[in-house]
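Field reference: sequence -> structure
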Amino acid sequence: MVTRTEAVTRSLRQRVLEGTYAPGARLNEMALAESLSVSRTPIRAALGVLFAEGLLDYEPNCGYVVRSLSLSEAVHIYTVRATLEGLAARLAAEAGLDAPQRQAMRDNLDEMRGLVLGERWEEAQQRRWGELNRAFHALICALAGNGYLTASIQRTLVLPLLTERGVKTFEAQRAVIWWDRSDYRRAYEDHRDIGEAIFARQGSRAEAVMREHIDRAGRLIGRKLAIRSEEELALP
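Structure field:
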């Protein structure tokens, strides 16, 4: 059963990610409580959660404000994510997989291979690829067995992106919609190599391949974000 604090947290998180509150906007506890028809207690708790998630900053004598994320900062996040997910891959390899876990990873890789090498590459295939991609990375986080590490990785995945024309939700694992099909194939090959390293319990190799996998995605998405920013500036 969802508690009132959890419901308030979800509502405020969605508003931040949708740009209802502009970057730099101060979030007043009393005004938020009135708008959501709740007391200030769940509001205060929710603001603390969003601050921990990296969606808000805290300024002395001002309180919580919506965090602004520039294009360059979005790319920098990938550097952090590469380190964190590389560590997760190494821990997963060192811990080893039981039979169900091994089968789950094989099934994921097999289906992904079928998609990227198949004849059709339309919206449905791309959407399914995205689901498999998120499942693959989530499985590795679970195998790492470190809740704090998993929470830290989650903080790098969804953040409000400040562009010249306002706020956009930047979802790292969904940004691959900008890729060409060759990029998807390269990503699958990385996943395959990561999986092989984990199966063989080669921690250092798994970490190295994962870090390069995330770094490459960051470089690619950084270029795409820059292009989109230039296109927005050209709009009337």
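Note: The two ends are 48 Å apart (CA to CA).
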